Amino acid sequence: MPWKVINIVNERMRFVLRLEDGERMSELCREFGISRKTGYKIYSRFQDLGPAGLYDESRAPKRQWQQTPPEIEDLIVKLRKRHVTWGLKKLKAYLERKRPGLTFPAQSTISQILKRRGLISPRYRGRKRHAYPSSKLSKSYAPNEIWCADFKGHQVAKPQLLLPFDHLRPLQSLLPRMYGTRKHSRIRCPPRFYRCF
Prior knowledge:
The chain is an alpha+beta fold. The protein folds into 3 domains: 8-54; 70-116; 148-196, no CATH class. 39% of the residues lie in helices and 10% in strands. It is built from 7 helices and 4 strands. Helix 1 (8-20) packs antiparallel against helix 2, helix 1 packs across helix 3 and helix 2 (25-32) packs across helix 3. The longest helix is centred in the first third of the chain and has 14 residues, at 36-49. The model has no long low-confidence stretch (mean pLDDT 78).
């Protein structure tokens, strides 16, 4: 046996029709499983609006109490279009100075209004990343054709700070020497390379 599908509006119509035929409110409410208060509400809405009153009304508020009036929004948008480089703080200060009788929203609300109208776009405030120029590694076809150097970071050695670096032959994967220097400079490093040959 299939399930019985119940449409709420049809049930409310049956309720109202039986009530108008002369049945008692308390007995009908008990049969339909609703309170008498709800029964009177359904019947009252049917009398005021007709069959349209049997549908559920929207539960959304009819008015948003803190919504910025359209006139204020238009003033903000016009000023922003006239002065594209002005920030929110300056826009608000200018409007308050020129129109002292009006109350203007907070900067955050002005920002939302301008975003909604497409006049500002959100900025990404991520970490600054420094792009280092990349250099492609050269191909080595014979031993000792290319040599590489790599600085290993700061190491503390008594009594001074050392910056170790090593040499590497790419084709042979050989590490002939490792040195420590006090500074990364062109003056101190080349003599170390010449000692390797």
